Give the backbone structure.
Amino acid sequence: MAKSQRKRSSAIRSFTGSLPLQVKLILSFVLIIFIPILIYSWFLFRGVSDNAIRDLVKKTENILDIEKINIQNNVELMEWTGQLALSNQDMKDYLQIREETDIAWLLDFKTKTFAGYQHFLFNNPRIASIRLFTDNPHVSEFWPVVLKESRIRDRSWYGTVLRQRGIVWWEIQRGGEILSTAAPDASAATPYVSLLREFMYPDDSTHNGILEVSMEVRHFFTKTFSSVQEPGSQLLVVARGGEVYTDEKAAVFRNAPARELVKRLALTDGEGNASETFDYEGHPYLAVHSYIPRLDVHLVNVVTLADTLADIRQTRSNMTVIILVLVGVLCIVSYFMHSLILKRLRVLRDSMKKVRGGNFSPDVPVYGTDEVGELGHHYRQMLKKINELIAEQVNRQAATKEAELRSLKNQIDSHFLYNTLENLKMLAEVEGQYTISDALTSLGGMMRYSLQWTRDRVRLRDEIQHIQHYMAIMNVRYDGKLELRLDVPPELNDQEVLKMSLQPIVENAVKHGMSQGGLQGKKLSVSLSAAVREGECVVEIADNGCGIPEDRLRRLNSMLRMEESDYRELRGRLEREGRDGGGIGLRNVDHRLVMSYGIEYGIRIESVEGSFTRVVMTLPHFMVSGGEGR
């Protein structure tokens, strides 16, 4: 399995590696642009759909809230009408009469009291009927307000109203149920919303009758049955028993009857508005419903989503076309831009082919300040440098031949010098000049070490021995005022160092330490220590001389790795100003270390004026098995 995966990945790398650079750039550009566009489009399309549904829900809730306000107004109107019906004192006295009345009294009551009472109660055209059903046997019926309670005892809500004990009960019922003893045609009868309430005798405990205030459903639920509705939207009322009241001719119910749509809803008795979406035989709908506890009904607004979803699909289609056109334009622009860029790269490629064929002076007509132009500039500089290096190598080969001849001559001369120094040393010992004899011994050791250059890298102990010879000779010059202190662990004696890399530093310390006159009769102490720190060998050479001023110290450290042209310019300016340029020996040592071990190795200078100067050399910790032959 892993082997097959490796083969597939290798085949993919081989295929992509064989594609032209322009194709890779265009593909990468398309992927970089197209993938974010796809992700953005997905979120955008989803946002368009969500926002459309959210706006539709909000609009539907607004319609529902307006209807709820209308319902509240009608409830208050019917309750106020019922209060007026029961608060008329003449009517209360009549309903509570305790003896039979004659015809003359009844005619007088109907003419003087009942006519005004009836006119007053029915001054609002939305009130369909006001009825007082009483069980008082002494009360005669005055149609259509005062009726016998026996007419409603068989109604389904009668017992419930009595159990309410004076609390209002709301009922939605069909017209004809109240006055007719026959079973009404429920489908043809007009539906009413009725306020039903028991009223008592003055003792507030004896039943007197039941008040009924009715309003047609189409007047009570004003917006539900209004012809001015949102397109594709329709309000409906779900009563206590599951009956549905609405305009069945509305466009929403063209594909499904209202009762079937209500069956798909999960109506609850919670507070606030609830919304849900559902499908009926492939047709999408949105329903927002709210429970009205006082009436014990659910008010539902059903909206068909067909038009909304069609608008969303149209919006998505338009956006998809725009995105595809945009991607196409970007691809075309990318193609032409990459062609312009790669044209200049092809010129560089052709020039490189000429260089590979041996022509190191081809014309490179690639200019500009962008990356490709900069590449052309550096390529021309590289060719120039190559030509310089070729010329330098030719000169170096000639110089090497000359150096070989000179080396042969030096070997002959060095033997003559060694023999001469031995003779002088023996003569000094015979004459008792032991100081001169020791100095000649040290001088001979230095000459052998410096002239016999068979390898560039030596042991640390070889370099230290060379320094000891140097200090011995310099002590003859300075009457023993120099002191060399060594702190090198035995295990670092075989540490690899560059030959003649420590002696220039010690020589620099002696030269500047003895020339400044800051010792005031003390010896100049030069200490050399070595240690391994974090896997590197650190060699420190310090003196107790007069130190270096801070500004000159910064200049010396910066000159160590300064570009050669900048270094020569700075050194020339310092010499013209009569100041010591300095640092050439230390710079040469640092350059040798960088060339041999890498840029992370080298030296740095530390000093405090009037106190000390320390040169820290960092080397790779590496032991050698052989050193410079003595």
Notes: The two ends are 65 Å apart (CA to CA). Residues 237 and 299 are 5 Å apart (CA to CA). Confidence is low (pLDDT under 50) at residues 176-186, 407-412, 626-630. The chain has 15 helices and 17 strands.
